[in-house]
Design brief:
The chain has 311 residues and is an alpha/beta fold. The chain has 2 domains: 89 residues, no CATH class; 206 residues, Rossmann fold, CATH 3.40.50.150. Helix content is 43%, strand content 19%. It has 13 helices and 11 strands. The strands form 3 sheets. It has a 7-stranded mixed sheet with strand order 5-4-3-6-9-11-10, with helices on both faces. A two-stranded antiparallel sheet has the order 1-2. A hairpin with a 5-residue loop joins strand 10 and strand 11. Helix 2 packs antiparallel against helix 3, helix 3 runs antiparallel to helix 5 and helix 7 runs parallel beside helix 8. It is elongated, with a radius of gyration of 23 Å. It binds glutamine. Glutamine binds next to loops.
Length: 311
Amino acid sequence: MLILFFINVFLSSVFSNQMSNSNTSVQSLIRLLREELKGLYDTHEIESFIFYTFEFHLGYSQTDLLLKKEVQIPEQQLIKMNDVLRRLKQEEPMQYILGEAWFCGLKLKVTPDVLIPRPETEELVEWIIDDISHSNLKLRLLDIGTGSGCIAIALKKRLPNVEVWAMDVSNSALELAKQNAALNKVDVNFIQGDILNSSANFINQSALFDCVVSNPPYVLQSEKQTMKTNVLEHEPHVALFVNDWDPLLFYKAIINYSSRNLSRNGKLFFEVNEAKALEVSSLLQNNNFAAIEIKKDLSGKERMIKGAWQL
Ligand code: GLN
């Protein structure tokens, strides 16, 4: 009997990874999460991870977190929450762990096949809406390198009269983007295509676009040293990086495509590397774009550019 008891104690201490799978209260799990994540993330981040974990797995609100401290967490949820902790300790982004992210007030599915939508990209969407929402015409818009579909879906949601197209080179990204459009009940035309393949005519239509938008890969390989593990080791490099010797590769290709497919006075919007805004602006100028504007994001970085096609 005594031996069995010791075996039991031994096994549960091996398998529980510091967390007993029974009789764990909300309070003790919160304490454990704080302890285990300390040093790896700042306090503010840890508190938001705690909230998201409880919200996702137990449906808790902020108030529940305060009022239900003594509640025992059911074993099934505890196992899942323990797994969230394990993955956070490996610096996996929370959005990939939970499989969802918020963008412009919309919930989107995310997987490591796509970038996690960024707040600065929300600013780009707002800028586009401000710019094109006054038009009475039935506009056609194309998002190049759509990833999770965030830009295209948010624009369609806010401007339902615009005909929205979105393309990506990655089939798995497109599959996810289609699911996101369905989840958010918007109609977006998705197409597979490689913008770097200049001979590809990925939209088999002669109609022009009134607006092209893109957040292409713009992080330099040499910037890798300054990046956080959660981005560098978990987000798709194909969506992030360009070679230092040709940092504007995607911008050149998109400008080239736009010069053939934008209507007169059609708009081109870009998200850019903060260090390359001026170069992208001259590129636009040298390619018959006018009314070029650079816009800073909320952290004061030159993050967005627009121009109007003149021919
Ligand atoms: N803004 C993203 C980052 O900081 C990069 C997005 C992109 O390359 N288009 O990681």
